[in-house]
């Protein structure tokens, strides 16, 4: 149990694990928006609270400014630019109230930039040169929020309205600084609560990520378990995991591979049986002939010569079978043994047909070659000769009397096509899928008269595949067959482990 749990955790924390990646994706998608939302909400809340505080204080300061004007707090004198009026106690009390309420400081500055009133009594009578104050005299009110030092600084104009010309004149500015400790305190409380909520949310997201990553990868685990069952030999059943489209594709591919493995295993068994039978038949015939001669004490020379001819024929048949088997095994090893050269396919085809025309004339079969264009390709000359010879020779052997065989050569920008069609006996539809199997014969009695080992098409197909080509057949029983070989003009070797 612990071993399995440790294996699961180790797999989870491995970045090569799909479960780990799903877990991290869910974790990131769940946590990052929560963190960003917390910072966004708190930042927006802080901004709104500061603006609301500034607006509230500005309103109160505007009221106090109107009181200053109504009490003639700013009095112009001809001898002096500005004389300081005596602040009524009620206004003084209002300024003190604002200062105490918001834990701040209020300074009243006249048009000469001199401080008339300071709730801290530190700068009264001094000249203050501040960019914000100068802008405020120009009609640009502003505020500055300094979160680091914990205060809000704002300017409020004191505007005198002249009823005669209906104009406004800024006669003074109130420079106010208020503490933001209360705001920071509220934000700190909200932040702590948000962090607690965020931690609970993270715990929930982690649990959900674990559950979802486990559930989402469970079908793949079932596929692995089923494959291990097949690998161990406990089951030969096809796998079915229809949870996702991806699992269906994987399972279908594995089932096809499993079917191919079964077919190969069956083919291997049939191959061994066929090889045993094919090799045993000539040996049995030789033994029968030899025993017949031994049983006749005074057999004539003519009989000996006849029996020896039959024995030689059977030995030749055995030799052909062994030669074809060796060729087939050699092709099964590796395509890296190809001796690829640039070759004129037209010249090679004409040479092969020249060799086979005597056989065609002997069977009264017309052999025709039709070339659409000159073709040069990178091929193995020996194996391509084997492909062409087997197809044309089969078309001649399995043809009707006074029949015909047509060979066509064509090419495009990627492949060249070698096509052999005939007017022969044709292939039954149910036999088309078996013709490339080793030792398979469509008509065993007819094949015995013609000869052959039943390995020709198997060898041909292997040679075509070694060139990364394809071979197809169309046939109608009693009317003839058409074999088409399509091979790339440029050969590309495949590295070990690389798929084609």
Indicate the topology:
Elements: H1 2-12, H2 18-70, E1 74-75, E2 83-84, H3 89-101, E3 105-110, E4 115-118, H4 131-137, E5 143-146, E6 151-162, E7 167-179, H5 181-232, H6 245-295, H7 301-333, E8 340-344, H8 345-362, E9 366-371, E10 376-380, H9 381-397, E11 404-411, E12 415-422, H10 444-450, H11 456-466, E13 470-476, E14 480-488
Parallel strand pairs: 9-11
Antiparallel strand pairs: 1-2, 3-4, 3-7, 5-6, 6-7, 8-10, 11-12, 12-14, 13-14
Short key terms for the protein model shown above:
about 500 residues, alpha+beta, Beta-Lactamase, Helix Hairpins, Heat Shock Protein 90, five-stranded antiparallel beta sheet, five-stranded mixed beta sheet, 11 helices, 14 strands, rod-shaped, disordered C terminus
The third-level CATH topology of the largest domain is Heat Shock Protein 90
The CATH class label of the largest domain is Alpha Beta
Major beta sheet summary: 5 strands, antiparallel
- Which regions contain 5 or more consecutive residues with pLDDT less than 50? 76-86, 445-449, 496-500
Q: What is the H level of CATH, i.e. the homologous superfamily of the largest domain?
A: Histidine kinase-like ATPase, C-terminal domain
DSSP helical segment count: 11
Indicate the multimeric state: single chain
Judging from the principal axes of the Cα atoms, what is the shape? rod-shaped
According to DSSP, the number of beta strands is: 14
- Can you tell me the number of structural domains? 3
Please tell me the overall pLDDT: 80
Order of helices and strands: HHEEHEEHEEEHHHEHEEHEEHHEE
């Amino acid at each position: 149990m612990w071993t399995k749990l440790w294996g699961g955790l180790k797999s989870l924390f491995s970045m090569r694990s799909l479960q780990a990646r799903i877990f991290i994706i869910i974790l990131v998608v769940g946590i990052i928006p929560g963190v960003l939302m917390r910072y966004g909400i708190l930042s927006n809340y802080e901004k709104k609270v500061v603006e609301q505080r500034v607006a509230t204080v500005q309103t109160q300061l505007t009221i106090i400014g109107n009181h200053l004007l109504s009490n003639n707090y700013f009095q112009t004198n001809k001898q002096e630019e500005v004389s300081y009026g005596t602040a009524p106690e009620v206004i003084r009390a209002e300024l003190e109230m604002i200062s105490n309420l918001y834990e701040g400081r209020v300074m009243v500055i006249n048009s000469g930039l001199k401080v008339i009133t300071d709730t801290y009594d530190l700068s009264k009578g001094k000249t203050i040169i501040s960019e914000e104050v100068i802008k405020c005299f120009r009609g640009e009110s502003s505020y500055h929020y300094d979160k680091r030092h914990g205060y809000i600084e704002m300017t409020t104009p004191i505007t005198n309205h002249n009823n005669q010309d209906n104009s406004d004149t800024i006669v003074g500015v109130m420079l106010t600084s208020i503490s933001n400790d209360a705001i920071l305190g509220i934000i700190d409380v909200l932040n702590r609560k948000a962090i607690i909520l965020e931690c609970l949310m993270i715990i929930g997201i982690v649990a959900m990520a674990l559950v979802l990553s486990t559930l989402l990868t469970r079908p793949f685990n079932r596929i692995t378990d089923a494959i291990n069952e097949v690998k161990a030999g406990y089951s030969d059943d096809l796998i079915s995991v229809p949870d996702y489209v991806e699992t269906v594709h994987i399972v279908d591919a594995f089932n096809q591979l499993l079917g191919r493995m079964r077919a190969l295993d069956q083919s291997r068994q049939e191959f061994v049986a066929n090889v045993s039978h094919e090799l045993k038949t000539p040996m049995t015939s030789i033994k029968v002939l030899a025993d017949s001669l031994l049983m006749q004490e005074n057999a004539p020379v003519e009989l000996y010569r006849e029996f020896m001819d039959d024995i030689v024929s059977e030995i030749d048949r055995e030799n052909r079978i062994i030669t074809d088997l060796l060729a087939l095994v050699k092709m099964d090893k590796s395509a890296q043994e190809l001796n690829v050269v640039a070759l004129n396919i037209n010249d090679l085809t004409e040479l092969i047909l020249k060799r086979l025309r005597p056989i065609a004339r002997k069977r009264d079969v017309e052999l025709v070659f039709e070339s659409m264009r000159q073709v040069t390709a990178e091929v193995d000359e020996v194996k391509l000769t084997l492909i062409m010879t087997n197809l044309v020779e089969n078309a001649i052997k399995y043809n009707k009397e006074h029949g015909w065989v047509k060979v066509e050569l064509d090419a495009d920008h990627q492949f060249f096509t070698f096509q052999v069609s005939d007017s022969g006996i044709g292939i039954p539809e149910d036999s088309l899928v078996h013709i490339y199997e080793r030792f398979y014969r469509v008509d065993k009695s007819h094949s015995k008269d013609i000869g052959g080992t039943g390995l020709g098409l198997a060898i041909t197909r292997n040679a075509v595949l070694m060139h990364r080509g394809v071979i197809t057949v169309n046939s109608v029983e009693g009317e003839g067959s058409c074999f088409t070989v399509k091979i790339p003009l440029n050969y590309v070797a495949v590295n070990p482990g690389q798929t084609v």
